[in-house]
């Protein structure tokens, strides 16, 4: 049975809990995504993207989704299918790339987003 103190706590947060509650009855904090530092690499290099500094303030497990937000004309980098904290990409065209990292918590109810710029010379 739920205690009166817990019921009062739930009532005091009102509809905010409907947006996504973490384990238990508190509000679910958004994970903080960190796609890593900008990089400049020579053409032909393999680029390692590192999102391992991403974290969730509630301690929830997090899941990683990488995507190409911007790439130079003629590039065929396309979709990144990896869902791990670190991934490797192989840009085949010189120019500016923006790679986006979206991190979600285990409920998919809160997200964090970060972008990293990759310059290929």
From TrEMBL:
Entries under InterPro entries matching the protein: Ig-like_fold, PKD_dom_sf
Coiled-coil intervals: none
Name by which UniProt lists this protein: PKD domain-containing protein
